[in-house]
Design goal:
The protein is α/β, with parallel strands linked by helices and about 750 residues long. Helices cover about 40% and strands about 20% of the residues. Helix 15 links the parallel strand 13 and strand 14 (about 440-445). It is globular and about 90 Å long.
Length: about 750
């Protein structure tokens, strides 16, 4: 029987079942190797204290500080009516600021004995505000006694590592667990080719792991991080380079538009001229379509930059060349809207086979899950005979019974809404009329601007085109933060602004983070001090709509829209809103993607702090789509000093999506740029930051391309193969392959 390699040992064998369970559930760590790759977030020096003045609100922090004073108070409360309630208030300082700690009830006894003035300790907890002062309620703490043998041993080295931790597992407990498994680092297989490591003077992997967890100097930390960043960048780029290498071997049919065909006829009837950006990007796409290998291109552009027009011209070019094009949309509402707008733009060119249709015309069909049987049968027939050159649909396009005559191009709208398997299934439907299997060309569209390094990292197997010009006629959008808790009269004014816009004949969106008919299971049965301090549940569409209709927006026509409504109900609501029969639409983020109502001029986003930066930018793009200026109001109850409020201020300050995506990334640094929702796997980026490490990513891409070109199967690099399997587990590798 083979022995399990040291780094693949389950943590429960080494640390015990209880600790291993918490590490698996809260930090996603399962093996010794996982724990060794859980790096410290930062380090404290023995003689240097944290800046308490800079603590972020609502975040779990670990600080090293000294007790200034401790006072025990008694008070009367519902639980202790005779004045027997006890509250311990401890003030800690680091020389730059002070922070209050509070302990209640039976929890006061131990800290009362241990946290005496002059004591130094590490404290961990969630920062909140009480009486306008920062405080930690019931923090966990670890005394730093430099005089005892045991503490000196466990905090060996001059630098104290502080790990990304959770309320269930403090940083110092993680440090002790790391100490236990650190000897296994000697057996870590090195993924970097020796020539690359020596050429760039990088540490061997075992030494880097040792130095990141137990550094003696700041130089140790820097050398370890440089090495570990290279691992992450290189392994990721090798996975992408292998994908590009494989794609380059696939056959595809070149699709070149005719000079006097459908595309030319479409361009002739356009009532406006294309922007320079649209022309440039179209040329990139047409060049790709003309090759014998499948196009893999990402088209990113601001909301309203005309991506649909560029995609439609690509689809028409493929139809010209005798093929078919399929556009995959994430929701029925959006599929129907794309179908309507494309048919309108094409006019008689979309009436193939019908009286009055142009000689160049083709059929444009819609295929969604909620269509009637007869319409669905006809659509399927049009696809298999080739009568329909263009099909627009939802995941219904992927079902087994859907057959194409000659699928030449797949356009995926808002790629982040689609599962990997769905995209792959659609690509698998491409056969030429003679039955030979060929890959279709692929165009992925996204309105979420992505910085260059992220595109290199996340979409490294796709070539990137960027539309950064807005077409003429788009109006500016003014954005403001509405601090509902500090200044309630601002919220009153927000509803007045909505009424003013409606009185001018315009319409409004009100967006909420929650629907409101779900079971509120999250808050049941958990009542720790930290949970008590948690915020109220997010505002819900159904509650807010009822309150507005009965209160500040009484008399206006208010409707709701959310994801759990039946498709036909959703479509009916959207049609009424688009026709101007509804004044105010109270909705979830179901309107984030592609909903186009030029008459809507104002958007109020409730609990704006519950949304990500890119999502807020997407939502805001739904207004200002006509000639009247747009207004976006970001409502929040978060205090001015909080990180959430700074995020909203950033969104209000700029309309530049690329700038906002940088801010978003900087704030989600701990997150997974590979999109956890899509890959279903843990973050592979721990020390690499896609914004700051642009140079490393670019160099790693070059090195990876060279390695894969000379040895596609990596037969001479077993360490690299192992790292690919570990970092890019099966699910993520599929995600990258099918992207």
């Amino acid at each position: 029987m083979d022995l399990v390699p040291a780094l693949e040992q389950p943590l429960k064998n080494v640390l015990g079942a209880a600790t291993a369970k918490v590490m698996a559930e809260h930090l996603g760590l399962h093996t010794v190797g996982d724990l060794l790759h859980h790096y410290p977030r930062r380090y404290e020096e023995r003689g240097q204290l944290t800046h308490l003045a800079d603590l972020p609100m609502d975040e779990h922090v670990t600080v090293v500080a000294q007790v200034a004073d401790a006072r025990l108070h008694t008070f009367a409360s519902a639980k202790a009516p005779r004045g027997k309630g006890q509250r311990l208030e401890v003030t800690i300082t680091d020389g730059s600021g002070r922070l209050q700690l509070v302990f209640f009830g039976h929890g006061v006894h131990k800290p009362h004995k241990e946290l005496l003035p002059g004591t130094r300790a590490m404290f961990a907890g969630k920062v909140s505000v009480f009486n306008r002062r920062l405080q930690l309620a019931h923090p966990a703490y670890e005394l730093l006694r430099s005089d005892t043998e045991e503490t000196v041993e466990s905090w060996a080295g001059a630098l104290i590592p502080l790990y990304p931790a959770t309320a269930k597992l403090e940083s110092w407990k993680i440090a002790k667990a790391v100490q236990t498994v650190l000897p296994s680092a000697q057996e870590a297989l090195d993924p970097l080719p020796g020539t690359l490591r020596q050429g760039r003077a990088l540490l061997p992997l075992p030494e880097a792991l040792l130095k990141i967890h137990r550094p003696h100097t700041k130089a140790d930390i820097a050398a370890a991080r440089d090495r570990l960043k290279w691992d992450e960048a290189f392994v990721l780029q090798v996975a992408l380079a292998r994908r590009r290498h494989t794609d380059a071997q696939l056959p595809a049919l070149p699709r070149t538009p005719r000079h006097d065909g459908l595309l030319a006829a479409f361009d002739d009837r356009l009532p406006f001229t294309l922007t320079d950006g649209q022309r440039k990007v179209s040329k990139e796409i047409f060049d790709d379509l003309a090759t014998e290998h499948p196009m893999h291109r990402l088209l990113q552009g601001e909301v309203g930059s005309g991506k649909t027009m560029v995609a439609l011209r690509a689809m028409l070019a493929v139809v010209d060349a005798g093929g078919q094009a399929a556009m995959l949309a994430p929701t029925e509402v959006l599929a129907q809207q794309h179908h309507r707008s494309i048919v309108e733009m094409m006019g008689e060119l979309a009436e193939g086979g019908m009286l009055g249709g142009s000689e160049h015309a083709t059929k444009v069909v819609l295929l969604t899950g909620s269509m009637g049987a007869a319409a669905r049968r006809q659509a399927l027939l049009d696809l298999v005979t080739g009568e329909a050159g263009i099909v627009i649909g939802t995941h219904a396009l992927i079902e087994d019974k859907v057959r194409f005559h000659d699928l030449g191009l797949v356009v995926v709208d808002e790629q982040h809404r689609f599962g990997v398997e769905q995209r792959d299934a659609l690509r698998g439907k491409a056969h030429s009329p003679d039955g030979e299997k060929r890959s279709p060309h692929l165009l992925v569209m996204t309105a979420t601007p992505i910085p260059r390094t992220v595109a290199m990292t996340v979409f490294g197997d796709l070539e990137t085109s960027v539309l950064d010009q807005l077409p003429a006629g788009r109006s500016p959008i003014a954005s403001h933060v509405v601090p509902a808790a500090d200044k309630p009269h601002f919220l009153t004014r927000a509803w007045e602004r909505v009424r003013e816009e409606v009185s001018k004949g315009h319409q409004a969106y009100v967006v909420c983070p929650r629907i409101g008919d779900e079971e509120d299971a999250a808050g049941k049965g958990r009542k720790s001090a930290e949970d008590e301090a948690e915020k109220r549940p997010p505002l819900a569409v159904l509650d807010v709509a009822a309150q507005l209709a009965a209160g500040p927006l009484r008399g206006l026509r208010v409707e709701v829209l959310h994801g759990r409504m039946a498709p036909e109900d959703k479509d009916a609501v959207m049609r009424r809103f688009a026709a101007g029969d509804t004044d105010v639409l109270v909705a979830t983020t179901v309107i984030e993607v592609g909903v186009n109502v030029p008459n809507a001029t104002v958007m109020v986003i409730m609990d704006g702090d519950r949304f990500g930066v890119s999502q807020l930018h997407q939502l805001r793009g739904r207004v200002g789509r006509g000639s009247a200026p747009g207004l976006c109001l970001l409502v929040t109850e978060m205090p001015e000093a909080s990180a959430a409020r700074r995020r909203l201020d950033a969104v209000a300050a700029t309309l530049d999506g690329f700038e906002l995506s940088r801010i978003d990334l900087e704030q989600r640094r701990e997150g997974d740029v590979l999109g956890q929702a899509q890959s279903g796997a843990r973050s592979s980026l721990r020390v690499l930051t896609v914004i700051d490490d642009e140079e490393i990513i670019a160099q790693a891409r070059e090195e990876a391309t060279a390695v894969v070109a000379s040895d596609p199967e990596l037969t001479s690099l077993p360490g690299l193969r192992t790292a690919l399997d570990a970092l890019l587990d099966e699910e993520r590798e599929q995600y990258l392959e099918k992207g």
